[in-house]
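[audit] Reproducing an earlier prediction to check determinism. Same input, same settings, fresh worker. If the tokens differ from the archived copy the diff job will pick it up downstream; this log only records the rerun itself.
[audit] input (479 residues):
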Amino acid sequence: MRYDVRKVAIVGGGPAGIATAKHLLAERHFEVVDIFEQQANTGGVWNYSTYAPSEELSIPQTGPHQPLEKPRWRRSASTDASLSKPEFATPIYESLISNIPQFLMEHPDDDSLETQPLFAGRDSVLQYLNRYANDVRYLIKFQTQVYDVRKDNDGGCDRWLVCTKDLISNKASERLYDAVVVASGHHSVPVLPDIPGIRAWNMEYPGIITHSKYYRKPEGFKDKKVVVVGNSASGLDIATQISTVCKHPILNSARSKQPEFQSSESWKKEMPEIAEFISPSQGHRVLRFADGQIVSDVEAIVFCTGYYYSFPFLSSLRPSLIVSGERVENVYQHIFYIDDPSIAFVGLPFKVIPFRTWEGQAAIVARVWSGRLKLPPKQAMRRWESDRIADRGAERKFHELGKLEDFRYHNDLVDWALQATARVGDKIPRKWSERDAWVRRNIPAIKKAFAERGDASHSVRSVEELGFEYPGQGMTKAF
């Protein structure tokens, strides 16, 4: 299956969209590359927003089928109302520090993030991403929301009609494209489970339950009895921050055991899942946990339970891409819509080191659509999806690429990209090395050593400064 695409729309001007645009341009094949970004800047999810409208959170939130996000209008310093900018809530919080060493985060053609501390702060990452986007900024239509993408067959032309709205003027526009890349991320619709009693509890005690998407800083939890649900990277980090001001111990509720390096903190008590929100008629802010423990007088609960995949602008596609929201259905290699591979996704996998993963995916999309690489027949693509389901299940773990699976996946994508005949000026993603894999395996210990440096950690630029020495090629476990 070979394509000859000329006009491409990219939904999203964050890291995935920018990487895709650069790989498309490097092909020197495409006549039109347009990027639509609803925010006022690049950076995607790394844009920090003080806007945290937790009152808009549905409790519980048990499905992905939600309308497009609405912005809050942020006034500029100018008195000119026309300079107001749309602001969307993102899950970035005030003192967020990356949980990935900066040299693993970087794009292969820009190593400037290595001038920052080993685990860079959100501002540094955002500035890096904005610089990286500068040479394709002219392609981006900012403050423009894509509200519908559907097939248009008028005049015998089988193309995608992309419908957008300028958020400043409120003017709607339509344009036809041969292909569409969805690079808008998956941090819009929070998962908040329907635990028995949660509805009545929330009505009686409004404002106590929230989601990590709306967490910004710990001060609002001062001297409170707090439960944090979830022990992913964000859950552990948010619990650590809140613990500096809340009553001890903070209760960390999760289905699975916590990582060993995080499980022995004196300020924290590990708890199983919440089994029930006890009726207000039977006690004051009472929870029952799965092991039977009863906890009363709870003053704040933060669910760090992830997000649904949700793309409301693709709701007309059949077969559907989104059913349960636990994964994207009918996709090949986490990239191509099997029934029509002129729709592609960059950025679906999670538990990955993102920017380089998106580079690998973008390289494949660009080379397939320029005709330099072929896709297998639909039957083979469906077999890949079926095999993935048999191995990982049909729900959340489908797109999970943890434990170095993302390294193997990315390197396989690079090998696939290199099957195209080499040309002068080719943009080649960089493979992960054995040393990279060694660092990845040791990130928990490296992050702990970094944190133990306190304020002195700001001067640490390498793992070697923390006492970690790579044993050498062939001396570590293969990935």
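[audit] rerun output stored. Observation attached for the diff report: The radius of gyration is 23 Å.
[audit] end
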